[in-house]
Specification:
The protein has 584 residues and is an alpha/beta fold. The chain is built from 27 helices and 16 strands. It binds phosphoenolpyruvate and magnesium ion (MG).
């Protein structure tokens, strides 16, 4: 059917018209069948092993064309897995006992993986993804399941049921827009799409069923719309929209050199959140006040191996040097939730409520101290701060500070320079942390409100689930009360407080945050100029009045009326929402 329009959630701005490719997770079902005899099953397995070897060789050669030899050597590990005695002999032994090749492989693989999952050694754990890659490939070749991902040599969009943050990070340069059945605006996948600057629409429910490979699609990340096989009139309309959006981007650039201050001269720091290295340049180009949040977990998600102290130091130092004299807030590892590595994926039934953020770091002390040492080494010029994620009790902060002291002592003994007065801040993203903001603010040097998780945990509303995304909107009175008391407690303790969740870039929330006294808004670099435009269009007096009224509101319905009658009447907000395809 021509011109099929599907509405979803606008997840990353921009509009693209391209051909579509499908991106599907390879799911395997081990066939239930009788063994056809040992000889047959063994030769079937050996054939699959040979085919897998040939495939990895082709991938390695292709990879070599794109990268240097040392990086292509990563794939050597896969050949080793393919020759591994425990895997191969274990599978053949089970075949000899009467299993089919597929069942034997499945059982041997899960035994190896569950053993590795129990091992503490981080390096060995990191091998799990190699093993899974190879055994999945082996199983596909055993079951003759064709690979479904379409690889196109030209620029295209991909339509997927769901993408993980690491899948987004490793997309080919030819992928210029994405549309997914699942996922929400504040999921890490959406944050990654914004970070790499490609338009995205999520929560489309059944886009993968409706789009065929090579269909022309329009992905409108501003309005959250996917149009399949657009007709001529729609294409003309969208050509105009693309030109207008480009013009809007150019106009925003006029704000780069202007100060981020309100009409009555109160300056607000607008910093950037960094998820991928490419964003550092954009932050600098947009004249960012610094890096308000460096999400270090993405170093782990995009690399096959856990980066060691030195590798991390080089990255942190590179960013700290580039941003100097402005400051960089480096958040310690927040692995867990929807930011999972292949190894962690299988170990917890509810990762959002599991060993996430600071809990993970405090139970993996070697890893934590290595990261802290890397951060400390990058702090020698005095422009780096440490931020601790997912803190829910004061004890965690005290313990983390104790490990920071251990890391300092080790560096002192190694005669390596660092900033001995480095600031340590706490993320306020669990309701418990907002409730105990007073002692946290007394113990920490600054607070940073992670509104993405604060919404999720306050409202019991999964940030990645489009079905509950309706209650995940920026107007929730309960969340604003928690933010208000966090800001008050930080200021009482004479500490500064930032907001680094997506709320900081949400036009209708900005006057309320400013009016409540937020000191720093930390946003994705592509949002910085829009935020500055709103800050410059408000007076502090007006923002305070808006915040006071907003905080008296107790229901979402009243809040919606207030937003419609007051906030979106502010010209800068009205204009931005219109450009983003919002309600104004
Ligand atoms: C947040 O929760 O708002 C936040 C900034 O952390 P993340 O999005 O990385 O979970
Ligand atoms: Mg968070």
């Amino acid at each position: 059917m021509r011109n099929k329009i599907i509405r979803g959630i606008p997840a990353s701005p921009g509009i693209i018209i391209t051909k579509a490719a499908l991106y599907e997770e390879e799911k395997f079902f081990v066939p239930i069948r009788e063994s056809k005899g040992k000889a047959y099953e063994i030769s079937k397995f050996e054939l699959a092993q040979q085919k897998t070897k040939e495939e990895i060789l082709v991938i390695q050669q292709d990879f070599l064309k794109k990268t240097d030899a040392s990086r292509a050597r990563i794939l050597e590990a896969q050949f080793l897995v393919l020759e591994d005695k425990t895997l191969i002999d274990g599978t053949i032994d089970l075949i000899k006992k009467g299993d089919t090749a597929e069942v034997a492989l499945e059982q041997t693989t899960s035994k190896i993986l569950s053993r590795l999952n129990k091992i503490e050694d981080e390096y060995l754990k990191a091998r799990i993804s190699d093993i899974k890659d190879v055994t999945d490939r082996l199983m596909r070749n055993l079951t003759y399941k064709p690979k479904k991902n379409t690889i196109m040599q030209t620029k295209h969009s991909i339509i997927a049921e769901e993408l993980t943050p690491s899948e987004i990070a490793s997309l080919s340069d030819n992928v210029i827009a994405i549309a997914t059945d699942l996922g929400g605006e504040n999921s890490h996948t959406a944050i990654m799409a914004r970070a790499i600057g490609i338009p995205a629409v999520m929560g489309l429910k059944d886009a993968t069923k409706l789009v065929n490979i090579n269909d022309t699609v329009i992905i409108d990340g501003n309005q959250g719309v996917l149009i399949i096989d657009p007709d001529e009139a729609t294409l003309r309309t969208y050509d105009k929209k693309i030109k207008r959006f480009q013009q809007y981007g150019k106009e925003l650039k006029n704000l780069i050199s202007l100060p981020a201050e309100t009409l009555d001269g109160n300056s607000i720091d607008i910093s950037c959140n960094i998820d991928v290295m490419e964003e550092v340049d954009l932050a600098i180009q947009n004249n960012s006040a610094g890096v308000g949040l460096l999400r270090t977990e993405f170093l782990y998600l995009t690399s096959k191996k856990i980066p060691n102290e030195n590798e991390q130091y080089k990255i942190y130092n590179y960013i700290a040097e580039k941003i100097y004299p402005n400051s960089v807030v480096i958040r310690t590892l927040d692995i867990g939730g929807d930011k999972l590595t292949a190894d962690l994926k299988f170990t917890e039934s509810n990762p959002f409520l599991g060993c996430r953020g600071i809990r993970y770091s405090l139970t993996n002390k070697k890893l934590f101290i290595a990261q802290i040492k890397a951060i400390l080494r990058a702090s020698k010029k005095g422009n780096v701060r440490i931020l601790l994620p997912m803190v829910s009790e004061v004890k965690e902060l005290i313990l983390a500070k104790f490990y920071i002291e251990i890391a300092k002592t080790e560096l002192k003994n190694e005669k390596i320079a660092y900033d001995s007065n480095i600031g340590v801040g706490v993320m306020i993203e669990v309701p418990a942390a907002a409730i105990i903001a007073r002692p946290l603010a007394q113990e920490a040097d600054f607070l940073s409100i992670g509104s993405n998780d604060l919404f999720q945990y306050t409202l019991a509303c999964d940030r990645t689930n489009p079905k509950v995304n309706c209650s995940y909107n920026p107007l929730q009175p309960a969340v604003f009360q928690l933010i208000k008391s966090t800001i008050e407690q930080a200021h009482k303790a004479r500490k500064w407080v930032s907001c680094c969740g997506e709320l900081a870039a949400e036009p209708i929330a900005i006057p309320i945050l400013i009016g409540m006294g937020i000191d720093v808004l930390s946003v994705a670099p592509i949002r910085l100029l829009e935020v500055k435009k709103i800050v410059r269009s408000l007076s502090m007096k007006e923002a305070k009045e808006i915040a006071t009224k907003a905080l008296e509101i107790e229901t979402i319905t009243e809040m919606e009326t207030f937003i419609n009658e007051v906030i979106i009447k502010i010209p800068a907000i009205k204009e931005i929402l219109k450009e983003r395809g919002g309600t104004a």
